[in-house]
Amino acid sequence: MTQAEVLRALDARAADQWGLVTTAQAKLDGVQGVQLLRLERSGALESVGHGVYRLAASPQPEHLRIKVAWLRLDPGTPARDRRTDGPGAGVVSHTSACAVHGLGGRPTDPVELTVSSRRTTRDETVVLHRAATDAQDITTVDGLPVTTVPRTVVDLLEDRAAAARTGTFVAEAAARGLVRVDDLAPRVAAFAGAYGLPADASGAELLEFLCEQAGRPLRAGRAGRPAAKGAGPGAASGPERKRPTIWEVAKRAGVSHQTVSRFLKNDSGMKPATRERIERAVAELDYRPNLMARSMRTQRSHRITVVLPELSGFVPIPLLRGASAAAHEAGYMTDVVGLEGGESRRARSVLSLLETRQADGVLSLVPLGDLGDLAGGRGAGHWPVVVLGEYDDKLQSRGRLADGRPAEEILRHLADQGHRRFLHVAGSQDWASARNRRAVYVEAIERLGLTSYGVFDGDWSVRSGYEAARDLPADSGVTAVLAANDYVALGVLRGFQDRGMRVPEEMSVFGWDDEEFTRYFSPSISTVHINKEEVGRQAMLSLLALLRGEPEPKSEVTDLFHLVPRGSSGPVHR
Question: For the whole prediction, is pTM greater than 0.90?
Answer without folding.
Answer: no
